[in-house]
């Protein structure tokens, strides 16, 4: 399944990274040992010293095979704790919920079974764990808030199942909100995604996007593809890839490791999308139609009523459910959100304070 990119990518389409895989060979019970990665640095022209980055980071990057009775898939992950916790995408390991087996292949070729710790379908982030017999090499976490457009980066993973692949590029843009399909039929959002032209292909999903010091700044998650003459989309890189910022990904991962779940802020209302064409047909505003308001919840306390049409949230047009998902991923309990709405023919604005889910 593919979706048009929010904001318009002329002629481009967005597809989640996948890939196919066959049943891996025998599963080993031992894991490689190592220490956190060291700095890679830049070369004389100011680009990442990709060789140094690869040597430093690849030991902490794994290939993930998910094997079920109906087939399998391949993706990538980064070891974030030396006792076996691995960060990846939800869409890489979602089949494990229905009984598929997860097999991790380390950079030295050793393999181990892994279990699903938890996942955030809304952010397309998941954590798996291997039972490490030894201390595992871990990736160093950077600060995605310090990332700048134009800075050089390196992507590491298993495109098309080719483990240990390394590509280089730059940060092409920041703050992209990229909707992608979730496995439960809803829409996930890569909130504030890092856009890069480093080649990313199916199988890179869940893998590392790092800076020149080998520090993890993003989780590679999706690519844009260009449709052919028949309107079908290709599956390869066209130099437009998207990564979940590591600050968000790690925040979610820590919750998953501690509790197995992610707690999202609560708005206390149920909405449905009014698309532009439907709004025009009924001579009303596009936005989010409020189907219901929970008694005593944040929306009711803010004065939102059933039948209102929310036209903007936190300054952003409320043109899709993705804007709600982004709020849940980027806001915390106690944060306030400005809500613009239409009630009949009257416009209004209010402030909603997010609370914990009851």
TrEMBL record:
Disordered as annotated region, ranges: 22-42
Keyword terms of this UniProt record: Hydrolase, Protease
Domain of life the protein comes from: Bacteria
Pfam families the UniProt entry points to: PDZ_2 (PF13180), Trypsin_2 (PF13365)
InterPro entries: Chloro_Bact_Ser_Proteases, PDZ, PDZ_sf, Peptidase_S1_PA, Peptidase_S1_PA_chymotrypsin, Peptidase_S1C
Gene3D superfamilies listed in its UniProt record: 2.30.42.10, Trypsin-like serine proteases (2.40.10.10)
Keyword ATP-binding: no
Domain (PDZ) ranges: 256-345
PANTHER family: PEPTIDASE S12 (PTHR43343), PROTEASE DO-LIKE 8, CHLOROPLASTIC (PTHR43343:SF3)
Protein family (similarity comment): Belongs to the peptidase S1C family.
Name of the protein this chain belongs to: PDZ domain-containing protein
Organism annotation: Microterricola pindariensis
Origin organism lineage: Bacteria, Bacillati, Actinomycetota, Actinomycetes, Micrococcales
């Amino acid at each position: 399944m593919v979706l048009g990119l929010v904001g318009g990518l002329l002629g481009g389409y967005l597809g989640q990274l996948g890939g196919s895989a066959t049943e891996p060979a025998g599963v080993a019970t031992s894991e490689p040992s190592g220490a956190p990665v060291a700095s890679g640095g830049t070369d004389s022209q100011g680009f990442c010293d990709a060789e140094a980055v690869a040597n430093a980071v690849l030991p902490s990057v794994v290939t993930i095979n998910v094997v079920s009775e109906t087939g399998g898939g391949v993706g990538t992950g980064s070891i974030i704790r030396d006792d076996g916790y691995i960060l990846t995408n939800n869409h890489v390991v979602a089949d494990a919920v229905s009984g598929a087996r997860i097999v991790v292949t380390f950079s030295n070729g050793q393999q181990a079974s892994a279990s699903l710790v938890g996942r955030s379908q809304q952010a397309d982030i998941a954590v798996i764990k291997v039972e490490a017999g030894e201390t595992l090499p871990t990736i160093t976490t950077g600060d995605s808030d310090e990332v700048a457009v134009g800075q050089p980066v390196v992507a590491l993973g298993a495109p098309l199942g080719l483990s240990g692949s390394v590509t280089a590029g730059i940060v092409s843009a920041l703050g992209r909100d990229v909707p992608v399909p979730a496995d439960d039929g809803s829409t996930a959002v890569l909130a504030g995604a890092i856009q890069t032209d480093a080649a990313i292909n199916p199988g890179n999903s869940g893998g590392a996007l790092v800076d020149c010091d080998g520090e993890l700044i993003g989780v590679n998650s999706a690519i844009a593809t260009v449709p052919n003459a028949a309107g079908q989309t290709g599956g390869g890189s066209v130099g437009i890839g998207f990564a979940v910022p590591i600050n968000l990904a790690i925040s979610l991962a820590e919750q998953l490791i501690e509790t197995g779940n992610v707690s999202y802020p609560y708005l206390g209302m149920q909405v449905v999308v009014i698309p532009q064409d439907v709004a025009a047909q009924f001579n009303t505003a596009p936005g989010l139609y409020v189907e219901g308001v929970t008694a005593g919840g944040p929306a009711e306390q803010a004065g939102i009523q059933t039948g209102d049409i929310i036209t903007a949230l936190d300054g952003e047009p409320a043109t899709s459910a993705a804007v709600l998902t982004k709020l849940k991923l980027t806001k915390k309990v106690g944060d306030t959100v400005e809500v613009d709405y239409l009630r009949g023919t009257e416009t209004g604005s209010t402030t909603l304070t997010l609370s914990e889910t009851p």
